[in-house]
Amino acid sequence: MVRESHVLKARRQLWKPPEWKLLFGLLSFVFVAFGTGALIPEPEVKIETLHKPFICKRKTQRGDMMLVHYEGYFEKDGSLFHSTHKHNDGQPTWFTLGINEVIKGWDKGLVGMCVGEKRRLTVPPSLGYGKEGKGKIPPETTLIFNIDLVEIRNGPRSHESFQEMDLNDDWKLSKEEVKMYLKKEFERHGAVVNDSHHDTLVEDIFSKEDEDTDGFISAREFVYTHDEL
Ligand SMILES: [Ca+2]
Ligand SMILES: [Ca+2]
Questions:
Q1: Is the predicted pLDDT of residue 187 greater than 70, yes or no?
Q2: First CA to last CA across the chain, in angstroms?
Q3: 23-61 b/e with 16+ CB inside 10 Å = b?
Q4: Nearby residues of 225 by Cβ (< 8 Å), 6 or more positions away
Q5: Ligand of minimum distance to the alpha carbon of 208
Q6: Closest listed ligand to the CA of 211
Q7: CA 56 – CA 121 distance, rounded (Å)
Q8: Does the global pTM surpass 0.85?
Q9: Which residues cross the membrane (predicted)?
Q10: In this predicted model, what pLDDT tens digit does every residue of 53-95 receive, in sequence order?
Q11: Helix and strand tally (H, E) in the chain?
């Protein structure tokens, strides 16, 4: 789950929901680190490739946005609990890979996937909805997903986004570069924010992303910081 800082919470209160929604993708790299891994090895997600397209120009990596159709079943009795074909007005759904936006089983099981590929994931409870369950999902439930990848786009944490932000191509982001990018994005979405707001936001981003506190966000810090793997 993405946790908001107090600054982001303040932003959300200032802006109307549609603007917030647009900005959410951009700001999703502002999230808090999770603790170090557990001592007991986690059960893995089982990945089966049901269909692999002949041509594959690009494979998914962490930070990419993925558009998928999927069906979710309970392993126990094989019953369907969700289908984008049936429940989502028949529309596929977007998410960003590898940033805890979706269950861990998806973040782990949908890397290296091609457009047109179909996978079946068997997700143990610890990589799904855990001991608590959620909504229709009872506690301690193993889930099976059939997932079709429809489209890949550059996400906010992709190398492509990094390159766009890194104006002088030195493979690290200065505060000025991050500020320029935010300003451009805010303007593009029609949000009016004054300079001091940008500064606060930049400071907030650096406090979380600049792990070695050298005053720059390196490519590694940008793409991989706070990933659990
Ligand atoms: Ca730079
Ligand atoms: Ca750094």
A1: yes
A2: 15
A3: beebbbbbbeeeeeeeeeeeeebebeeeeeeeeeeeebb
A4: 33, 209, 211
A5: 2
A6: 2
A7: 20
A8: no
A9: 20-40
A10: 999 989 998 888 899 999 999 999 999 999 999 988 899 999 8
A11: 8, 8
Specify which residues 95 forms β-bridges with: 66
Q: How far is the CA of 81 from the centre of ligand 2 (A)?
A: 43
Å from CA of 13 to ligand 2 middle: 30
What is the chain's percent helix, strand, coil content, to nearest 5? 35, 20, 45
172 vs 164: CA distance, rounded Å: 11
Each as own residue / partner, the long-range contacts of residues 163-169 (CB below 8 Å, 24 or more positions apart, any chain) are 166/219
Q: How far is the CA of 215 from the centre of ligand 1 (A)?
A: 11
The CA 173 to ligand 1 mean position distance, Å, reads 4
What's the chain's average pLDDT?
81
Residue 182 CB burial class (10 angstroms; 0-12, 13-18, ≥19):
buried
